[in-house]
């Protein structure tokens, strides 16, 4: 789940 | 962090510095769409709300603050300091056509029904089309100052570099963010026409002019 990586891109 | 993303972010920073340089040295914001710049403020503010809730890295935090601050500064330059040089009569793209669909898309495609995730998703969709008022203005006037085209090229390069970044991340981390990738591909696609003219004319030393 991408949101678990807390949106690390800018 | 990989090299594509790093250079993408540098390109994004460069685009902002080029834009501020253009406005302050020519003392004019002619040729720049206020609507596009206002959309970028909206994009950054809605996406970077997580500054207060989650910490990724010092790099990440500094960049977020920079993007919010610099985009607000550009609005100040356009609206206050160099206001007389801003011509709203050619900046006519209807914002509701962009914002409305982005709200709907964010409600359908998101990673969680909470304000932070919905605003994040909204900001991704909005960023993908935020350049349209600027490109529309370019299309209408049919020409642009060379420095303005460098600004757009740097902004487009930032988006283009995020694509190999996602490919790299898929193979190295198994990381895929379908919302970012889909919106990012659309966003990069919008620059294709511009890039064609930029490479065939501006980089050959000619003025940016669209065929009549």
Automatic annotation (TrEMBL), chain B:
One of its GO terms (cellular component) is endoplasmic reticulum membrane. Its main location: endoplasmic reticulum. Keywords: Endoplasmic reticulum, ER-Golgi transport, Membrane, Protein transport, Receptor, Transmembrane, Transmembrane helix, Transport. It is found in: Endoplasmic reticulum membrane. It comes from the Eukaryota. The chain crosses the membrane at residues 52-76, 97-113, 119-138, 150-167, 179-199. It is a multi-pass membrane protein. GO terms for biological process: protein retention in ER lumen; protein transport; vesicle-mediated transport. Signal peptide: none annotated. The keyword tRNA processing does not apply. GO terms for molecular function: ER retention sequence binding. Belongs to the ERD2 family. This is ER lumen protein-retaining receptor. It comes from Gloeophyllum trabeum (strain ATCC 11539 / FP-39264 / Madison 617).
């Amino acid at each position: 789940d991408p949101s678990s990586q807390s949106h690390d891109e800018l | 962090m990989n090299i594509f993303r790093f250079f993408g972010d540098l390109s994004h920073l460069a685009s902002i510095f080029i834009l501020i340089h253009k406005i302050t040295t020519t003392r004019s914001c002619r040729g720049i769409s206020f609507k596009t710049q206002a959309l970028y403020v909206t994009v950054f503010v809605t996406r970077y709300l997580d500054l207060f809730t989650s910490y990724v890295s010092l790099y990440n935090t500094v960049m977020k603050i920079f993007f919010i601050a610099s985009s607000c500064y550009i609005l100040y330059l356009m609206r206050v300091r160099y206001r007389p040089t801003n011509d709203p009569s050619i900046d006519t793209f209807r914002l509701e056509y962009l914002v409305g669909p982005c709200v709907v898309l964010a409600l359908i495609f998101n990673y969680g029904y909470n304000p932070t995730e919905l605003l994040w998703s909204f900001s991704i969709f909005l960023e993908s089309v935020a350049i349209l008022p600027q490109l529309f203005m370019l299309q209408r006037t049919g020409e642009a100052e060379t420095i303005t085209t460098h600004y757009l090229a740097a902004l487009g390069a930032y988006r283009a570099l995020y694509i190999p970044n996602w490919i790299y991340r898929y193979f190295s981390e198994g990381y895929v963010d379908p919302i970012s990738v889909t919106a990012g591909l659309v966003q990069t696609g919008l620059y294709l026409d511009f890039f064609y003219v930029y490479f065939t004319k501006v980089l050959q030393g000619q003025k940016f002019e669209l065929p009549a």
